[in-house]
Amino acid sequence: MTRGFLSIVLHAHLPFVKHSECEDSLEQRWLFQAITDSYVPLLDTFERLAGDGIPFRIAVSLSPPLLEMLTDEVLRQRYKRYLENLIDLSGREKERVRGNSRLESLASMYHTRFTRIYEDFTGKYREDLVSPWSRLERSGRVELLTSAATHGYLPLLLHKEAIGVQIKAGARAFRRMFNHDPVGFWLPECAYVPEVEPYLSSEGVRYFILETHGVLYATPRPRFGFHAPVMTPHKLLAFGRDPDCSKQVWSADEGYPGDPRYREFYRDIGYELPLEYLGNALPGNTRVPVGIKYFRVTDRKTDDKDLYDPEAARRAAWEHAGNFLFWRNKEAEYWQGILGRRPIMVAPYDAELFGHWWFEGPLWLEFLLRRMASENQQVITITPSEYAEYYPVNQVSKPAVSSWGYKGYHEVWLEGSNDWIYRHLHHCQEQMIWMARKHKRATGLLKRALNQAAREILLAQSSDWPFIMKSGTVPEYARNRFITHIGRFRQLIKEVENGAVDPVFLRQLETWDSVFPDIDYAEFAGEERLPA
Predict the structure, then answer these.
(1) Same domain? 371 vs 246
(2) Which of 45, 167, 349, 429 is the most buried (most CB within 10 A)?
């Protein structure tokens, strides 16, 4: 008897990084690492499950910047060279550690892994990592969502027109890739304000995901808490995150990835072996992780790590899949009795958690879905839109302003390290809105310049830049990217105002910042009057 539903939602996103002038920039590797560690392994996992007839359902959000990078020919070719360097390095590692049987086994594991990913990317997928998701969707196993154009933090964009363009351009990019309207929308950082709703509704979106308190603090108070969606005033369904699902998988203190048997993320030969030996595996002799890691977590409180044991990690993934399923069964049984209807447990995660941050994550997910199919009848997987078909009538309520960031609101994206960006961003948005209204039917070079200005302001709006400034990982890069896009925008607007657009400069920007070929600057015109 089915007592409840589990809805796993994976959000795959990276900021748009394409340095045409630099073959192997450090930040470009964010994409290459995510493809190698997460995207290809997840695709392989879902395809094997589908091939074995496992009846799973899962939702996957693919952000527009990620889709643009996955379909960029320059980045595809660079990714192949990245893999070729890893195959070469892992092959040399097999020779370097010869005589140590455990290290030999691990080096061979990585060499086999990188070689297979290269063969899958160039052979099975033909360098196309978008179409496989479309095939999985058509098979009925995966439901695809979109997100905002450049993952802008919508509550802080100020102008409704700017919010609207982020949503419209994101939905249009999704249609270009998948040939249908997006049924679901991933709000960047799960950040909600009521102003997003009319734009989501106009794009055919039916639901979005919120942090737990975004639903719990809705008005009026939801009768079923976060175990059922609420219907918003614009007839959209808002699903709240299940905090227990999050804590068990994601918590730094309690989550599964901290188990001593799992692979240690931070011990990587890119930091430990001589630079001259690592060679082309590093970008410009800069020490970065290369993805070859020989140690396990062991104890998070010490740097003294034991060697990684893949079989022990595999057993841990099997055990943790069973543990997660045990608690979902208990949760469903309890809440069905309380609520009088089958609850939904929404489990949204960054897709990059599975494989990149948590090496065994795809294996854990595979074990979970297989065990649900073979051992369990109380909880089944479902997508948010399918749940709405089971329960088409839901309580009408206004969600609370919220995000899934630290403390649950906007603090991460608006604090001392990054608050300076907004005066520039809002001023440029006002300029873009004014220009869009002044030149409603531009053609030729003027239209191209205004479209590129729209691209630059969208790229400046990315939530990744203030997040990186706050987190302190590569803050100088984030500041430079923001300043660069604002500077390019201002130069284009200046040329438009002077009636002297430089075609060489424009073509250069169209090559460097080649997102959204179907961008429409006129959408910034929005309403005829700026909001008060």
Answers:
(1) yes
(2) 167
Tens-digit pLDDT profile for residues 170-226:
999 999 999 999 999 999 999 999 999 999 999 999 999 999 999 999 999 999 999
DSSP designation for 123: I
Domain check: are 387 and 472 in the same one? no
First to last CA, the chain: 54
User: For the residues 484-503, what does the mean pLDDT come to?
Assistant: 98
Annotated ligand binding at 464? The verdict is yes
Q: Are residues 419 and 399 in the same domain?
A: no
Which of 361, 383, 407 represents a domain boundary (last residue)? 407
Number of domains making up the chain = 2
CA distance to 249, 261, 262, per residue, from 311 (Å):
20, 9, 10
- Give me the torsion for CA of 366, 370, 373, 375, rounded to 10°: -130
Domain endpoint, select from 407, 434, 453: 407
For residue 294, give the 3-state DSSP assignment: coil
Closest CA to 501 of 513, 491, 512: 491
Contact indicator for 354, 58 with CB cutoff of 8 Å: no
> In this structure, are 347 and 472 located in the same domain?
no
Q: What is the CATH number of the domain that holds 512?
A: 1.20.1430.10
Q: Which residues are catalytic?
A: 189, 350
Q: Is the pTM of this model over 0.85?
A: yes
Mapping DSSP to helix (H, G, I), strand (E, B) and coil, where does residue 10 land? Answer: strand
The answer on whether 284 is annotated among ligand-binding residues is no
Tokens of 120: 């899958």
Burial class of 186 by CB neighbour count within 10 A (0 to 12, 13 to 18, 19+) = buried
Sign of CA dihedral 262, 252, 33, 60: positive
Query: Would 291 be classed as within a structural domain?
Result: no
Structure token pair of residue 73: 């020919």
Contact 71, 389 (CB under 8 A): no
255 is in an annotated binding site: no
The rounded distance, in Å, linking the Cα atoms of 160 and 142 is: 32
Cα(426)–Cα(519) distance, integer angstroms: 20
User: Residues, the chain, total?
Assistant: 532
Query: Is 479 marked as a binding-site residue?
Result: no
Query: Is 183 among the domain residues?
Result: yes
- CATH code of the domain covering residue 202: 3.20.110.10
Residues 279-329: tens digit of each pLDDT: 999 988 889 999 999 999 999 888 899 999 999 999 999 999 999 999 999
Domain of residue 421 covers 414-525
